[in-house]
Amino acid sequence: MMRSLRYALAIVVLAATQAPVARAAERVDLLLALAMDVSRSMSQPKFQLQREGYAAAITNPQVLNAIRSGPHQKIAICFIDWSGPGEQKLLIDWSTIDGPASAQRFGDLIVRAPRSFFNSTSIAGGIDFSVDQIARAPFEADVHAIDVSGDGTNNSGRDVRAARDQAVAKGIVINGLAILTDINQAQNPQHTNPPGGLEKYYRDFVIGGEGAFVMVAEDFSSFGRAMVKKLIAEIAGTRLRQHAAATDRNADRR
């Protein structure tokens, strides 16, 4: 009997020592899902300019300096292609950016990634998919954001405002980068040049959450410059929200 008891105890101890130890998720300053429009309105030259613009922005020294100025000195990003309903793809899974080497690796992956879709434009689908990616991210951050770039309105799938509102209710900020199209060159003006302009459309229908904003690329060739400004603004906004949260916590302790 004693021998059996000792054997059973040994099995329990061995199982306990071999059980996986839960580890706290790595902390970063920002979780950012980059969601790129690859719908029909994106010609192949425009598609390539977007890819190169994203890669150049992530590796830009000003962006890297902004990242290094945060408390954790790193952010986590993933990269998504989206087009019509049900047409979303995670091209690059969550990765930390903490300096030139990691930024260059991520940028190289963006440039080399083939196009996933060429269909209608479901901004709502892109937002919903991005929300799911944030939920499964293996990192922790005080600020969660989706960065939507596109050149047209939501013309398929569910109401984009419903997708936006549900994301914001989960504490996610949605920022937009509206790529303008000269109406004289537009193949589908109702889509790329809605009443009031695409910037207004993004402001009214797409962006949401505390500090959300729209930036404009006057054309596809200026996309990279606009993306640099956008990333810096997102990172700077993260620091402001972190400072405000810390101030509130300190006030509560008094």
Structure write-up:
The chain has nine helices and eight strands. By secondary structure, the chain is α/β, with parallel strands linked by helices. It has a single domain (30-253), classed as Rossmann fold (3-Layer(aba) Sandwich). The strands form two sheets. It has a six-stranded mixed sheet with strand order 4-3-2-6-7-8, with helices on both faces. The chain has a two-stranded parallel ribbon with strand order 1-5. A hairpin with a 5-residue loop joins strand 3 and strand 4. Helix 2 packs across helix 9 (223-253) and helix 3 (61-68) runs parallel beside helix 9. Mean pLDDT is 88; it is low at 7-22 and 243-254.
List keywords for this structure.
47% helix; 9 helices; disordered C terminus; alpha/beta; Rossmann fold; two-stranded parallel sheet; 254 residues; globular
Concise summary:
This protein has 254 residues and is α/β, with parallel strands linked by helices. The protein contains nine helices and eight strands.
SSE diagram, text form:
Elements: H1 2-18, E1 26-27, E2 31-37, H2 44-58, H3 61-68, E3 75-82, E4 88-97, H4 100-112, H5 123-135, E5 139-140, E6 144-150, H6 160-169, E7 172-179, H7 189-192, H8 198-206, E8 214-217, H9 223-253
Parallel strand pairs: 1-5, 2-3, 2-6, 6-7, 7-8
Antiparallel strand pairs: 3-4
Helix pairs in contact: 2-4, 2-9, 3-9, 5-6
Q: If helices are DSSP runs of H or I spanning 4 or more residues, what is the number of helices?
A: 9
CATH homologous superfamily identity: von Willebrand factor, type A domain
Judged by helices, strands and strand pairing, the structural class is alpha/beta
Share of helix, binned: 40-55%
> What would you report as the Rg, rounded to the nearest angstrom?
22 Å
Tell me the distance between the termini. 60 Å
- pLDDT under 50 segments (min length 5)? 7-22, 243-254
What does the largest sheet look like?
6 strands, mixed
Question: Which whole number gives the mean pLDDT?
Answer: 88
Q: Any idea how many domains?
A: 1
Q: Give the class-level CATH name.
A: Alpha Beta
Number of extended strands: 8
Overall form: globular
| Strand order in the largest sheet | 4-3-2-6-7-8
